[in-house]
Design brief:
This protein has 433 residues and is of the alpha/beta class. It is built from 15 helices and 18 strands. The strands form five sheets. Strands 5-11-10-9-8-6-7 form a seven-stranded mixed beta sheet, with helices on both faces. A four-stranded antiparallel beta sheet has the order 12-13-18-15, covered by helices on one side. The longest helix is centred in the C-terminal third of the chain and has 39 residues. It starts with 7 loop residues before the first helix and ends in a 13-residue tail after the last helix. This is cysteine desulfurase.
C-alpha cells in the first residue's frame, strides 16, 4: 500500500508562493529567502539542541510530574538535568531555577511578585527608561496599584548614571530592575557596580538577562543579583521556554502571578514542557563551551560590517556605547535617510528598525529618545543582529545592499543635497504653509 507523504497536520500549512521569479508573501515579492540579521528578535535552533529535544517528543513523552511510572521519572530526570545546565552557566544552584514560558513572564513575576510580597514594607521601585516594554508595562501596572516608580534616565551612551541610581534609593525601595544587555542598542550596563550599590543599601536587584545569557559572562554572586529573567530562544534554543533565577541566600520571595497545581515550588504552576526545557538546557551547555569562540567570531563580523559601511558612507552613527556593548548587536543611524524606507529597500536582508510603525503615527524608538538622539536620526535607525551561524558572505552582502540603498535614498533627498552644498540643516527656519 502506498504510504501518505504528508500528514493532515502538515497539509494545513499554507506554503509560500514560490516560482522561478522568487517568493511572494504578504504582498511582498523577493528573489529568495532573505539573509537573517535579526538575532535579537530570535535565533535559529542549534541542530545539536534539536537532537537533544527530539526523543522527548516521540518516545520519552512522559509528564515530569507523574511520579508512579518510568515515563514520568525519565522526564523528571531530564528536567532536573536541564536545570543544572542552566544554573551552571550563571554560577547558581539548580534549586534557584524556576521554569517559565519566557523572559516576559519571568519579568512579570519578578517585578510584580517581589513588590506584592513586600508591599507592607516596600512601595518604591527603580528602573530605567530604556528597559524592555514588559518591564516598563509591569512598572506602570504597579503604579496604578499605588506603588511609586522612578524611571532613571540614561547617558548618551545608554549607560545608567551610578550616582543618580544611588541617590534615588530610598528606605522604602523594594527593587532595582536594570536590563543587563539592551535588546535594541546592545549596551552592557555596569552590573557589578550596580550590584555593589544594591548590596550596600540592602535592596534586591532584578535584571532582564534575556539578551545577555550565553553571550556575556554572568556570575550571580559576583553581580549580587537577587532575581533574573532568562529566555531560551535568544541563545539558539526553542521558543516558549524561559527561566527565573531566584536567590536562596539571602532569600528573595515573590508572590505567584498564576494559580494552579503548585509546580515549580508554587511560583509558576503548570506542566513543565519537558522537550523545551531539555532544549533550553542543551543550549546553555553549548553556550558555556562556545561562548568565548562565538564572541571572538561575532566581534570580527561586527567590525567587518561596521567598517564596510563606514568606508563607503558618511553620516553613519553607532547608537549606544561603542566600548561597552555586545558585539552581536549593531544599531546604526544613517543621516538623511528614513528608517522605514531603508527597511523596505532592504527586503533581501532580515533586519529590524528602531522606529515603531503604527497605523496612526510613526514614532522614533523610546530607547533612542532616552539616549537624546535627535528625532531625525532616531527615525533612521537599523539594528543588525549577528549570531553563531552568520557568515562573512552574509555580512558582505548586507554591507553591499545597505550602501546601495542608502545612496539611492540620499540621491532623492533635497536635505542631503543642501548638506553637500555646505548648508547647516539645523540652522534653517522652516516656514509653515
Amino acid at each position: 500500500r502506498p504510504r501518505r507523504r504528508f500528514s493532515s497536520a502538515a497539509a494545513v500549512l499554507e506554503p509560500l508562493e514560490e516560482d522561478s521569479g522568487g517568493i511572494t508573501m504578504k504582498g511582498v515579492k523577493i528573489s529568495g529567502r532573505p539573509l537573517y540579521l535579526d538575532m535579537q528578535a530570535t535565533s535559529p535552533v542549534d541542530p545539536r539542541v534539536l537532537d537533544a529535544m527530539l526523543p522527548y517528543y516521540v518516545s520519552r513523552f512522559g509528564n515530569p510530574h507523574s511520579r508512579t511510572h518510568l515515563y514520568g521519572w525519565e522526564s523528571e530526570q531530564a528536567v532536573e538535568s536541564a536545570r543544572a545546565q542552566i544554573s551552571a552557566l550563571i554560577n547558581a544552584s539548580p534549586k534557584e531555577i524556576i521554569f517559565t514560558s519566557g523572559a516576559t513572564e519571568s519579568n512579570n513575576i519578578s517585578i510584580k511578585g517581589v513588590m506584592h510580597f513586600y508591599k507592607d514594607k516596600k512601595c518604591h521601585i527603580i528602573t530605567t527608561q530604556t528597559e524592555h516594554k514588559c518591564v516598563l508595562d509591569s512598572c506602570r501596572h504597579l503604579q496604578q496599584e499605588g506603588f511609586d516608580v522612578t524611571y532613571l534616565p540614561v547617558n548618551r551612551d545608554g549607560l545608567v548614571d551610578l550616582e543618580l541610581l544611588r541617590a534615588s534609593i530610598r528606605p522604602d525601595t523594594g527593587l532595582v530592575s536594570i536590563m543587563m544587555v539592551n535588546n535594541e542598542i546592545g549596551v552592557i550596563q555596569p552590573m557589578e557596580e550596580i550590584g555593589n550599590i544594591c548590596r550596600e543599601t540592602n535592596v534586591p536587584l532584578h535584571t532582564d538577562a534575556a539578551q545577555a545569557l550565553g553571550k556575556v559572562p554572568i556570575d550571580v554572586d559576583k553581580l549580587n543579583i537577587s532575581v533574573m529573567s532568562l529566555s531560551g530562544h535568544k541563545i539558539y534554543g526553542p521558543k516558549g521556554i524561559g527561566a527565573l533565577y531566584m536567590r536562596r541566600r539571602p532569600r528573595i520571595r515573590v508572590e505567584p502571578q498564576m494559580n494552579g497545581g503548585g509546580q515549580e515550588r508554587g511560583i509558576r504552576s503548570g506542566t513543565v514542557p519537558t522537550p523545551l526545557v531539555v532544549g533550553f538546557g542543551a543550549a546553555c551547555e553549548l553556550a558555556m563551551k562556545e561562548m568565548e569562540y562565538d564572541e571572538k567570531r561575532i566581534k570580527s563580523l561586527q567590525d567587518r560590517l561596521l567598517t564596510g559601511i563606514r568606508d563607503k558612507l558618511e553620516g553613519v552613527v553607532v547608537n549606544g556605547s561603542e566600548q561597552r556593548r555586545y558585539a552581536g548587536n549593531l544599531n546604526l543611524s544613517f543621516a538623511f535617510v528614513e528608517g522605514e524606507s531603508l527597511l523596505m529597500g532592504l527586503k533581501e536582508v532580515a533586519v529590524s528598525s528602531g522606529s515603531a510603525c503604527t497605523s496612526a503615527s510613526l514614532e522614533p524608538s523610546y530607547v533612542l529618545r532616552a539616549l537624546g538622539v535627535d528625532e531625525d536620526m532616531a527615525h533612521t535607525s537599523i539594528r543588525y543582529g549577528i549570531g553563531r551561524f552568520t557568515t562573512e558572505e552574509e555580512v558582505d552582502r548586507a554591507v553591499e545592499l545597505t550602501v546601495k540603498q542608502v545612496e539611492k535614498l540620499r540621491g532623492m533627498s533635497p536635505l542631503y543635497e543642501m548638506y553637500k552644498d555646505g548648508i547647516d540643516i539645523k540652522s534653517i527656519q522652516w516656514a509653515q504653509h
